[in-house]
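Pasting as-is:
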Amino acid sequence: MPLTLSSALPSTSIRQLSQEDAAHLLRRTSFGATESEIQALVGHSPAQAAGSLLGYGQAVQPNRFAPLDAATAGAAVKLVQASWLWEMVYTPTPLRERLALIWSNHFVIASDKVKNVHALQDYVTLLRTPALGPFPDFALAVAKSPAMLRYLDNDQNRAGKPNENFSRELLELFTAGIGAPGRPNYTEKDVLEGARGLTGWSYQGGRNQVKDFAEQPTFVAVPKRHDGGQKTYLEQTGNFTPEDIVRLAATHPATPGRVAGKLWAAFVSSTPDEAGVSQLARTFSQSGGDLRATLQALLTSEAFYAPANRLSLYRSPVEYLVGALRSMGRPALDEKTVLGLVNTAARMGQELLHPPTVKGWDGGREWINDTTLLLRMQAAAALTLGKNAPQGEALTPLTALGNPGGLSRALRGLNPKQRGYLMLISPEYQLI
């Protein structure tokens, strides 16, 4: 069942951002920021600040990772991961990369099954490019990508032999969601009929994930594999095509609430707020699923800036590492160091492009346990105290903790490296 849509999400009463407000905004949207980047937003209105962050382009930073030159598929995957982490650290448009990371935990694929370089790179590009447009268009583009076709077996889905994998996850995870007990958002018949409607899509090239990992795969529609018969799907009947099925799921009445809930948990609080999510879902619904309009409303809302919601989200391993480096002014890193950071994030529980299941990472408090906390402490030492520590700007309480007076007593008398280490292992830095 869809959420009951109430009034629009209330806007914040803040007129001009303080340095604490600006630091909060950049910690949530940009992984982290330097003193100068924070001060550049001070005095701006929340709407101006959000608009500037959302007005990003698609250019990526050059790097020397060359996955197409790798000797094996496994080595190529590592280089694709490193290339993405590099972009997170050095891009001038970090909200684009944080959104791509968020969507990679929604439209999930995994590199244990998808090893083709072009498929992985195109998937990451896809998470960046339409991520501020209409959600139905975004869902359709993902559904047609070779990475998703491979991961959920829809390339094997054909008339007479329907494969339900993608059809099921399209409803359960990507759009409507299961629903409440006794009030399901879809039925098993919908899954089967959806699978029939989704027949006929495949891709050419790069099909051998071991030998052909450097070959470009290309989406193809194969009419003779499509079940052209009549289907009844989500209480509608017709000779639905694959495009029809994806759009019907993406415009299901429950989809606005599910997408709004995902964005709420990523930017506001991991504690569910039915009223707030319902209000955000209203913006999503009334805009035709426009993600830019939805995010603009969210990033200028009273809930986003509410004191109770600050420092309420746990940093993921990737956010932990990238946030530290961006707060240090994006110091120069060599390729070996970046590859090491990819492996460090994986040991902490977040391997880029390889969530543990199709449901993605659970996140939240699950990121923190005795083992991962020790790994965070070791990473903090390497970034601040180690002999090969990056030579960046000194971390400050404002950049690391979002509060210029944070840990003032504990930091007194320490040198800049010691202060940086203490802040990175503090409870306050684990949260954004």
